[in-house]
Every structure is written in structure tokens, then in C-alpha cells.
């Protein structure tokens, strides 16, 4: 994994966009995306993250300095970050009521999930 990380970091230049997505491979630390976001940012890259559970919680715990430039949470992941019921958010949105999703998104913004470019 260290060789793969180094290859990625060696290839990235200022202005590049990198998307980190999915579950982490078994054995990787839950803060892997936190470390990668920080390392990629030092190289001037914009970083997106699409993950859930412990890796997402690790990003949230390290706010605001590790807030990715792009974040693609589904309703369950949005709930994980802000402490809301993600299933209820999804159900409400499916019924056309976006108030809960909007409130959660604004909460994210207040926590420091603000684009950095």
C-alpha cells in the first residue's frame, strides 16, 4: 500500500483532482483517507472523498483541516457525519421533503466541510 500511495503522490501535480472512494482494504488504518487528503493537498490537488462508516468518521473528527474539496455522501453517510437518522433523511427526500437533507448539509458546512480552493 505504501508503494501505491507513493506512486499516487508522485503523479499528482498542483491543480489535479483526485477522488478517494470506497471501503478501505482490510488492515488499513481508519484514518487512511485523512492522511491521503492531507498529503494530496500539500501537492496542490483538489481531493474528493466518497466513503462511509469509520473512515468517514475519521475525516469528520479531523475537521476542518481535512475537509475534502468534494464530498459525495448518501443520506445514510450524511446522517453518520451530523448524527442524524440517515434512513429517515432518505425516506423524507424520497417523499419530496428535502428539509432534513438541507439542514444536514448546512450543518456540514458549519462543521468545516467547505471547499478549499
Provide a count of the helices.
Answer: 6
Proportion of residues in helical segments = 40-55%
Radius of gyration: 15 Å
Instruction: Give the termini distance in whole angstroms.
Output: 28 Å
The number of domains: 1
By DSSP, the count of extended strands is 3
The low-confidence runs, each spanning 5 or more residues with pLDDT under 50, are none
**SSE order in H/E notation?**
HEHEHEHHH
| Shape type | elongated
* Percentage of residues in strands: 5-15%
- Global mean pLDDT: 90
Which structural class do you get from the secondary structure elements?
A: mainly alpha
Strand order of the largest sheet: 1-2-3
Task: Please describe what this structure looks like.
It is a single chain. Helix 4 crosses helix 5. Helices cover 51% and strands 10% of the residues. The longest helix has 13 residues, at 99-111. Strands 1-2-3 form a three-stranded parallel beta sheet, with helices on one face. The protein has one domain. The model has no long low-confidence stretch (mean pLDDT 90). It is mainly α and 117 residues long.
What is the structure about, briefly put?
By secondary structure, the protein is mostly helical. It has six helices and three strands.
List keywords for this structure.
117 residues; 6 helices; 51% helix; elongated; three-stranded parallel β-sheet; mainly alpha
Secondary-structure topology with pairs:
Blueprint: H1 2-11, E1 17-21, H2 32-42, E2 46-50, H3 53-61, E3 70-71, H4 75-82, H5 86-94, H6 99-111
Parallel strand pairs: 1-2, 2-3
Helix pairs in contact: 4-5, 4-6
